[in-house]
Amino acid sequence: MSTALAKTMTTEKTPTAEPKATVSAAEMGARQREISVSEFFTKNRHLLGFDNPRKALLTCVKEAVDNALDAAEEAGILPDVVVKVEVAPSNGSAPPPASQATRFRVTVTDNGPGIVRQQIPPIFAKLLYGSKFHRLRMSRGQQGIGISAAGMYAQLTTGKPVQIISRTGARAAAHYFEVQIDTKKNEPRIFENKKIDWEPPRGTQVTLEIEGRYQKGRASVDEYLEQVAIANPHVKLGYLTPEGETREYPRTIHELPPQPKEIKPHPYGIEFGILLRMLHDTKGHSLAGFLAGDFSRVSAAVAQEICKTAKLSPNARPRNIHGEDAEALYKAIQATKIMAPPSNSVSPIGEKGILHGLYKQIKGDFYTAVTRPPSVYRGNPFVIEAGLAYGKGPEQAAATPEAPAAPLAEGEQREDDSELARVIRYANRVPLLYQQSACATFKAVLETAWRNYGIAQSKGALPGGPMVVFVHMASVWVPFTSESKEAIADYDEIRKEIKLGLQECGRRLGMFLRRRERAKSEFRRRNIFELYIEEVVEACARLKGGKLAKEKLKTQLQKIATKRTGGARTDEILGGDGGPEGLPHSIIVTPEGPEGDAPVLPGAEASAVAPPEAPAKPARRPAKAAKRPARTAKTAKRKKR
Amino acid sequence: MAQAKVKSPGPVEKKLVGVADVVLVAAEKSKDPTLSIPVRSLANVNFNEKRGIIEMGKRKQARTFFNVGMAKKFMQTVLVADALAELQRAGLTTSLREIYYRTKHTMKESHENTFDNQNESDPLIEDLEVTLAALREELHVRAENAGSIVGPVVLADDGDRVDCARLGKGGYSVPSIVEPEFIEIRRCTADFILLVEKGTQWNRLSEDKFWRRYNCVLLTGNGQPPRGVRRLARRLHEEYKIPVYVLVDNDPWGYYIYSVVKQGSINLAFESQRMAIPKAKFIGLSSADPDHYGLPRNVGIKLNDKDIGRAKELLKYRWFQKKDWQEEIKRMLASGLKYELDALANKDFRYLTKTYLPRKLKEQDWLD
Questions:
Q1: Could you list the residue range(s) of the whole structural domain that residue B286 is in?
Q2: Are residues B74 and B220 in the same domain?
Q3: Nearest-CA distance from B40 to chain A in Å?
Q4: Are A411 and B108 a contacting pair at CB < 8 A?
Q5: Per-residue pLDDT for A381 more than 70?
Q6: What is the value of pTM for the model shown?
Q7: ipTM, 2 dp
Q8: Residue B331 belongs to a domain with what CATH number?
Q9: Residue A36: pLDDT above 50?
Q10: Are A370 and A307 within one domain?
Q11: Pairs of residues, one from chain A and one from chain B, whose beta carbons lie less than 8 Å apart
């Protein structure tokens, strides 16, 4: 067989190989030329999240919103962002309905610091241009691709340039730009540039006209903005849907998250190649100076220790260290105990923030949130936050049980809610909507043993029940699996932290469920006796041939039942119990209202929204303080028996 | 059915009404209503060696109303008692399944049914049987007719004369209630009774008119014989003083069928005195038979784990302590094989009629 194959190969090869090569090396060399990033991404737009029209619409909104929030926060402004998605007017004829339309205009307006005139064209029409790539500091955007890629997509599908209005302050003029990318050179081309009158005193507005599809449901623009509102309770978000609806996501926390600091790399996170580059590029004159100066958490003493372990002179010139010495240095760094990087480069949402966000957007009976202490992967500090919203909310729960009343036939069972939990994922406060199953967060949710907390979970599946699981990773550098930033890479350190966070949430949920179950089962116990007494009394009356004082027997039996099932105590448990004592950072919602540190939400009327600059902290329930001692007294009593 | 309607409540009905009285008396005294029900398990049966039957022990369990675990069962028991009393008053008999349907309904303002399936109501009827010391027949609950009889016996059923010698090879279908007030035995001239486990062999014997040649009654219960068949065998045995031989498969289940016929069952031990036939003999298939009758090894079936476990349980039963029986069971375990009666057909279709039984009877080769 192999010989036969060899034979055919040689026979085939000889005639073609003999005459002469069709292309010479010189000719091939002449064809080699540089590929610009823009050209590359034009061909590979799926890498940036423009795979299909529906996703493209979402990606455009997302990039513009991310930029707006980053800018406002960095300037210390509480962000007000308005997103407007409208069906693009097609020439003359009436625009199609939103669900049928293929062209959309996306306009995102913020109250951020604005952009100075000269920077507008490169920011919006040059790929890989930005302020965020070269620093180690937490921000939504990381690479400087996003918004210019969205502009490039617009250019590619509709040919329309990106329109930008920006104003840096009340005294400055507003500038209007129309720009496109020169894909060959990766340079901006300016179509329009003029001063205009613009009402807002400060901010930026971007308008993109793109080919897209508007569809509600999973991974839609609507879902994205809702999730943004959950993770960013300090943002006031307005949304004008393509269908002409207006949605308001009010601000529930009226202070900005602490500003993340920029940091130097941590030695543990450096790969060998990068260490070599840093050794070459450093401004330090001695090895010890380089170590102490270019890394975070390396003191002079630690630098000396590393040098000693590596058997290198602390005074050696960094530039002269290569080969085996560099390897020894690299190993010495790994072997030396170095403090974890400072976590002030990371700004978590905070337990209160998550609680407020979840409570605002998701109907439920129980909310909790956990912010883990900072941790490190590859030398990058990160913080994991986890949250849970459980239940259907008292209104919905009250509405459902009235529905089915038909008696059950043999072998029939009441339908269980086989609903699975929903996982909402965030990286640096940005919702991740695609590639759920590739994400470390999702894997951690699957790996958590939810059954321990009284939640159903089939093997290898999400936990069951009416539940939303919230996971946020905040880091100076979130390791995404691809450029389109859809899933967090699965580092062991990250997954472990996520699991720890989820486990703490699970424990609290378990406590809540157990307590609710206890009260319920007592109630059920009483209930079944009442039901059965009815049956037994009827049967006895029939047995006695109808000669029986039914009411009297019933009252007698009921009295025994009350005495036997805890009587007044049950009433007490069923009545007033349920405060989140022992459940830190949790909100429990009962039909009487929320208990715990719940934010006050504007009611149905939008006018109740607190003015944005009002320093008001979310009001606490006044009753709470008074209630607390009473409740603890009760717990003490319960523990005693 | 046959019973005339009685105005004043009969003894069984009185017992059933007693269940209601338990509730009434307890309620009056503000006590938890409690039924004490004899335990129906191996732990609560004694083997009375003198009488040769299994008797129920004295242990009772309390079924109380105001206990979450038992409340539903208590309520169900009262419901079943009510349904049974209704039967008594109307003079009707019915099946277990109809009792289940009669008592099943959805409870007021709830999604809960009184019973979800028949498995819940059946044991309650047995509970009431033992608690009230009333037989199932007396409670007017019957099973399907699951047995057949053929032979020189004349019965009277609802006034109809039934000559079991003139019913072809199909025979008479034994009703589940064969108490004297329902079935009268007018005459029996047989020399013995042969109780066969399986319908196949009973059909073979009936077709070959074995009963005519050896002057016997052929009875089958198609597996574990139902109460009607056991009771009828007992009545023939008692009233006409004729021996009973039991022919079953050679496996632990066959042995147990024999022991139920002979000593009574564990579950319904209290009925042994009416059902058991302590003098019944085990005629086959014995674990010694394959040797004696030259049955080849390849018609045996390997004992599975369940068979072996059951056999080991039988070895421990008091009523299997006789030396012969210990040998019999141990021989089966040692061979690792069980044999069905059907395996005899390997020699000849009529081997059972022509060779096996005649030789057994002639040699009096049976176990007691």
A1: 147-363
A2: no
A3: 25
A4: no
A5: yes
A6: 0.61
A7: 0.77
A8: 3.40.1360.10
A9: yes
A10: no
A11: 92
